[in-house]
């Protein structure tokens, strides 16, 4: 935000400066309210970028949200391979898929189980995988798949505000999703204005075994402490992965 005009001896100029600052504050609050409400015009957004570039760096722009997905499959002989090429993954590639130590595991007491799904994979026949896995779960045989989804939230000026990561594992065989493995989420690359609520806003997974199943996590994030404005925006980033008995996955998520 631009600095106030230098102090001068003239009382009239000082009053004018105070009035100007008050107008700028009112304008800023108005623009932020319009943007958070989703009804700001392109002209109003450009006004914010021009008059308050430092603040525009921290205003979430859902149209700029980027999504990336990394996945791996555990074969019946225990190898971790690419689901696309079938080739073994390197230790570095596996590390990008597995949740790190600071990822927050799903708490069974907070999970909401949704009804069994009946949708089948429209893109392929059921897989007939068999074998074992070193991953801990209450099933044996079948294949395991690991999924890491990253939503990168960017500002009106393209700066990274935060990255929201979600991780899920599932077991599949014979056209059925047979079990969920561990599920996690975490934040990285947070700007100074980011305040993540400790508890998850939503944490759902559908009942298995089933022909398909869905895992969904959602968080509450406040953007706070810009100038004299305390918290100026509240976001609800979420990520969803639908998994099929063939091993295929379908990703969804929200920028805010």
UniProtKB/TrEMBL annotation:
**Sequence ranges of Acidic residues compositional bias:** 108-122
- Domain of life assignment: Bacteria
Q: Where is this region: Disordered?
A: 1-22, 95-133
Q: Where is the composition biased (Low complexity)?
A: 123-133
Comp. bias regions, Polar residues: 10-20
What is this protein's name?
Uncharacterized protein
């Amino acid at each position: 935000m631009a600095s106030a005009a230098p102090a001068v001896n003239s009382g009239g100029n000082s009053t004018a400066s105070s009035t100007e600052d008050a107008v700028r504050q009112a304008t800023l609050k108005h623009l932020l309210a319009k943007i958070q409400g989703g009804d700001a015009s392109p002209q109003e957004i450009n006004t914010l970028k021009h008059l308050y570039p430092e603040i525009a760096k921290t205003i979430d722009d859902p149209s700029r949200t980027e999504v990336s997905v990394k996945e791996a499959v555990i074969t019946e002989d225990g190898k971790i391979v690419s689901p696309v090429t079938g080739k073994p993954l390197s230790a570095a590639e596996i590390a990008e898929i597995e949740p790190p130590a600071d990822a927050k595991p799903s708490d069974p007491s907070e999970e909401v189980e949704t009804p069994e799904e009946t949708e089948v994979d429209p893109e392929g026949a059921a897989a007939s995988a068999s074998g074992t896995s070193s991953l801990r779960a209450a099933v044996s045989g079948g294949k395991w798949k690991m999924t890491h989804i990253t939503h990168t939230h960017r500002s009106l000026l393209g700066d990274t505000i935060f990255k929201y990561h979600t991780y899920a594992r599932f077991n599949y065989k014979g056209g059925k999703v047979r079990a969920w493995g561990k599920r996690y989420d975490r934040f990285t690359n947070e700007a100074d204005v980011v305040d993540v609520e400790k508890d998850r806003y939503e944490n759902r997974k559908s009942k298995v075994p089933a022909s398909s199943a869905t895992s969904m996590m959602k968080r509450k994030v406040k953007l706070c402490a810009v100038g004299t404005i305390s918290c100026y925006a509240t976001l609800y980033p979420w990520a969803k992965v639908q998994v099929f008995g063939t091993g295929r996955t379908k990703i969804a998520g929200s920028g805010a």
